[in-house]
Specification:
Strand order of the largest sheet: 2-3-9-5-6
Protein name: DUF2961 domain-containing protein
Keywords: Signal
Helix content: 10-25%
Radius of gyration: 23 Å
Organism: Ideonella azotifigens
Distance between the termini: 50 Å
Strand content: 25-35%
Length: about 475
Amino acid sequence: METGMPLQALRWLSSLTFCATAALAQTPPPPEPSASAVMDLLRQAAPQVVPFSAEEIDRVQAGKGLTDCFWVGTVSPATFNILSPDRAVTYWISQFSLPEGAKLVLKGEYPRARYMSFASYNPLGQPVDGLADDGIAPDAGSVNPFRPGAQRLAMPRQFTVNVQARAALQAGVRVDEATRPANTIFVPTGEATYQLWLRVYAPDDGLGPLGGAKLPRPVMTLADGSQVEGDALCRGQVVKDQAVRDFRASKAGNQAMFAVPGAKAPYHPAQPVPRWNGFYNPLLTMASVLINTPFEEARNRMDATRRSGFYGTLDNYYMSAYVDDRYGELLVVQGKAPRTPYTLQGNAVMDANVDLRYWSFCKGRSIHDGAVDACLMDEQVPLDANQRYTLVVSTPANRPANARAECGVAWLPWGVGDGMDNPHGGYIIHRHMKPSPGFTQSLWATQKPGDEAATLGEYYPVPAYQARAGFEALGCPVKKP
């Protein structure tokens, strides 16, 4: 593994620090400690790009059967568990050059899965474009199984996607679809290499990470009209070295960021009542450590413009909460579930009568250790007749006897904690993907930090700590409020 930071990343972090300092300056600091001291803590936790060498990528991917010469690496539970991934997803990565005047197409087949997409990124790992499954027209004679009401098992299911360079792509901002040629994903212009990711969410049971499909096959047409594909394309254009990149804080820096002077909660940054914070941009998320401290008002003044995180996707919105099981043996989360398609069992039709394409809960660690210990996606969470769920997060030793599907309860293991010597800590993250046009109570409808509960209404997942004995007293099936 190699460590380092591109010049662009340094510039981005410098601007991030400037914005944070300006925000803090707008709020008169308490006499002690000073705002500048708090800013020093945040600076210490500034994440850095950590690229992996080609040798390390080969070592991690060896024997997994997930990659080829174009799709050189994966983020997944079995390979690179980094960047807070959803464990129901495999993320394939390609890094390649595009010669002057060349054109690249990807020829593939739609997987049997909940969702598939392509995403492109700038050198900082910020998403600049995305092309989701339902926006990809099928080849002549084929069927797109992801469109609402489509036959999911129909054959044939082939597609072709064009990869095209485009100037003035903005990080985290969707391309105007009216300007997009059919089946085209854009990459930034003027870069030495381009990064393209393929995501496959929740493949049908028994079909493997690709949902029974093969990896999309690249074909490059050079300026002189000649075509290159297969090993020849990979030898000439694919750059495996540093194709997989983490983005993390140092352990000492992350721990220093948690040590905000004057924090009122005993196990800060986790609060006695967990507080969900919608993701707007990386700095605002880092500054959530200022909640319930003398500096919380400074966070409230910070820029809340939505910008995706490092290697995020434009099709998901997120919220997260720091947690610590010293507040209670169990973390219990209850709410109403948005409707999603049922697909895991090879369902024949892509249900159109839904609220979201996908949702999940995951237990993660920290910005130093971006691994995720466990996740549950929508279909894995039992629901009652009112579409409500109860989720319990705990260590295996504290798992209640009635925290099982037969009792109407989903259980998520606590894992290793925060990955920084605190086995009690970490965070939970909640994802909402692709809301239906008429569904207005998703994270996509939030407008500002703090409006999550009001916007989601009955779909807001209410978290609370509880003793194991008290939860077991609720019986089986578990009595719900």
